[in-house]
Design a protein that fits this description.
Strand content of chain A: 25-35%
Largest sheet of chain A: 9 strands, mixed
Order of helices and strands of chain A: EEEEHEHHEHEHEHEH
Number of strands of chain A: 9
Number of helices of chain A: 7
Oligomer: homodimer
Mean pLDDT of chain A: 92
Chain lengths: ~250, ~250
């Protein structure tokens, strides 16, 4: 991982980095008395386009003492497009008009994305946790929910996840959801145009976690109310305890 | 309203009162620099039996600067039983085994209770708001959800409600729910034995409020996780702003 730029703004350090050819962003408090717990910020791909919303979430988390980081998704932003993914995306857009079933298209779109993205996020985690200012434990926050789901299942360093129920989940991954046991908070936009409400409720039901909370709010995909930022911080504060500052000479 | 006893414990004043022949409880901070916003605490009836849970919710709210109050329900505790309600309650207990439809029994059980209880809560509100240490605005928190629903619809002094989706709601009241417009937070216990999950989701959908949030948690009827106490306080802190302390001589 190499840092490519940084800026300081209002007590928050934002650094752009490259992990091989994957671009990423890291936000930390300007001063870190002890290694900060880390929140990985998920998004639907296209970091430049998503920057305002992702950065706002990051700054909200850093204000509460967390570090926050994200990387570009496979095929997102300036990363090379994958022809089969692009085909699936086009098919999915056409499917409602053609009244075609979408399950098979969702499989073609999401499963390869999850298979490629999850090892990249784990590699980013290796690099980020090697920085002295970041200590863990680690949370995942956001969409793509299928990526968060897979990470929650396979990556033991992730202690809690806040998932946005706002994107398609392949049916095969409902079985994976039963194997997730970490604490979850699931956000559902009740009137999300692009999201099947019943599927989201079924997925929430499927998760194996003993502590899981659904927060359903009114409005469409991008209408998550601001108070959910506070609720997210409180969820992570419960599950990502900060390391105690070590005294000098220890 | 006349106070019948009081005790002070850990900075919180708990007073028992009688409103006519209806017993009630009021919790306030020991000292109130300004009139406190009030939270009415709903419960299923039987204040003595419910005391530990209601008092815990009250103390949690008072610790954040709210006043909290509750009254006994019609037919609850030492109040006279109503024969038709008792009959409906008995019928409801028998209904699952007999595979009888419960809608008509729920109507007989809940509608008269709501019709009798709501004017009593409004009378309690008149009395409580006349105390100098209580200022409003007012929130309603808890079950019986049908009582909270009716209060939210008819009582303009109630500015926000946190409702427990844990008891039966007559179908006729779904139409009333569409007329509720105040901010709502609805708690749903996902595995509540005595509660129909789909009915709770339908009721949440029916409320007319622009700001409404569903918090669904794992576990049965009495298993609401402790962190929902904090979430409740934050919800009410957003919607029940405290009056500014008035300076001397004003």
């Amino acid at each position: 991982m190499r840092f490519t730029s940084q800026r300081l703004d209002d007590g928050i350090r934002e650094r752009a980095f490259a992990l091989g050819d994957i671009p990423g962003l890291l936000w930390t408090p300007e001063t870190t008395p002890a290694p900060a717990p880390l929140i990985l910020l998920g998004h639907p791909g296209g970091l430049h386009r998503m920057y305002p919303r992702v950065a706002a979430r990051a700054r909200h988390a850093v204000a509460e003492g967390f570090a926050a980081a994200t990387i570009e998704l496979p095929g997102g932003g300036d990363r090379p497009r994958c022809p089969t993914t692009e085909q699936a995306r086009a098919d999915l857009l056409r499917a409602p008009a053609a009244e075609e079933p979408v399950d098979e298209i969702v499989d073609r779109l999401v499963l390869p994305l999850v298979d490629q993205a999850v090892p990249e996020w784990r590699a980013a985690l290796d690099a980020l946790l090697s920085l002295p200012e970041i200590g863990g434990p680690v949370g995942y926050s956001g969409g793509v929910i299928a990526i968060g789901l897979r990470l929650a299942r396979v990556e033991p360093r992730i202690a809690a996840a806040l998932l946005f129920a706002g994107s398609f989940v392949p049916r095969a991954m409902f079985e994976e959801a039963r194997q997730v046991t970490i604490p979850l908070q699931v956000l559902l936009q009740w009137d999300d145009e692009g999201n099947d409400r019943q599927m989201a409720l079924d997925l929430f039901d499927a998760f194996g976690s003993q502590e899981k909370t659904l927060h359903a709010n009114m409005g469409g995909h991008t209408g998550v109310p601001p108070f959910e930022g506070d609720a997210a911080n409180r969820f992570f504060a419960r599950h990502l305890p900060r390391a105690q500052p070590t005294g000098r000479g220890h």
